[in-house]
């Protein structure tokens, strides 16, 4: 069996690219439609919380603290779902995470665009982004993030250095892989920006569709893996 066919379905290229596209898209969505916040990663919120604490800006504490809390809660929930289904011998754990993410984004689509509701929408996006971050952390055997790009950028540069300076052709190929993931994240942000200009609050619909497509990909790959005659691609 080839290395590619031996990988788990959630590690396949098409699934990883689809989820990375969603990751970039959602950051653009929350930035343009939900108060200029990047809800997928929490480094900025932690820094802003520290600044607010230093300046004693009590009215802004919750604005930054809540997304951090819900991101942590999303990680905890994803782990709970995966453990609960694994204990029952189920192979649906990652698809269950994606289905939960779809429901969360559907709820966001009904939240009004008034500024007082932005925090609720951003908390939900942070929650589901954390679930995706936890459940889908590998790509063709390498650890990646589908909801942020800093770690992927580091790995791209490391692999590029090893490939060019140390003359390692395998690492050079890996650098191209990480670069492609970064590009897909960028493409997601670009598409999210363009769609937000047209659909506004309803721009949350396309990522829901993409998550559904990812579930279909995983299901088809599971079936192929279960059938030796169609397992190799």
Shape: globular
Q: Please identify the structural class as seen in this structure.
A: mainly alpha
Main sheet specs: 2 strands, antiparallel
- The overall pLDDT average reads 88
Number of strands: 2
Helix content: over 70%
Walkthrough of the structure:
It is a single chain. This protein has 233 residues and is an all-alpha fold. It has a single domain, classed as Growth Hormone, Chain: A, CATH 1.20.1250. The protein is built from nine helices and two strands, in the order H-H-H-H-H-H-E-E-H-H-H. A two-stranded antiparallel sheet has the order 1-2. The N terminus is likely disordered.
Descriptive tags:
233 residues, two-stranded antiparallel sheet, mainly alpha, 2% strand, Growth Hormone, Chain: A
Outline of the structure:
The chain has a single domain (8-226), classed as Growth Hormone, Chain: A (Up-down Bundle). It is built from 9 helices and 2 strands, in the order ααααααββααα.
Secondary structure topology:
Layout: H1 3-6, H2 13-33, H3 43-54, H4 61-87, H5 93-110, H6 118-135, E1 138-139, E2 142-143, H7 150-164, H8 169-199, H9 205-226
Antiparallel strand pairs: 1-2
């Amino acid at each position: 069996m080839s290395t590619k066919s031996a990988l788990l379905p959630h590690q396949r290229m098409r699934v990883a690219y689809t989820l990375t596209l969603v990751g970039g898209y959602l950051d653009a969505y929350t930035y343009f439609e939900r108060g200029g916040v990047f809800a997928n990663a929490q480094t900025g919120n932690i820094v802003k919380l520290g600044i607010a604490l230093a300046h004693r800006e009590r009215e802004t504490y919750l604005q930054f603290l809540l997304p951090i809390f819900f991101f942590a809660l999303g990680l905890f929930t994803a782990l709970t779902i995966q453990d609960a289904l694994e204990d029952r011998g189920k192979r649906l754990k990652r698809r269950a995470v994606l289905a939960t993410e779809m429901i969360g984004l559907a709820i966001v689509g009904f939240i009004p665009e008034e500024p007082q509701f932005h925090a609720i929408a951003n908390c939900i996006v942070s929650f589901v982004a954390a679930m995706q971050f936890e459940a889908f952390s590998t790509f063709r055997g390498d650890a990646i993030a589908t909801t942020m790009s800093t770690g992927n950028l580091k790995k791209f540069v490391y692999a590029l250095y090893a490939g060019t300076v140390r003359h390692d052709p395998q690492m050079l190929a890996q650098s191209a892989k990480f670069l492609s993931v970064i590009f897909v994240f960028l493409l997601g942000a670009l598409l999210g920006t363009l769609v937000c200009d047209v659909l506004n609050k309803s721009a949350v619909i396309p990522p829901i569709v993409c998550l559904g497509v990812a579930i279909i990909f995983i299901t088809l790959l599971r079936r192929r893996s279960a059938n030796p005659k169609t397992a190799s691609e």
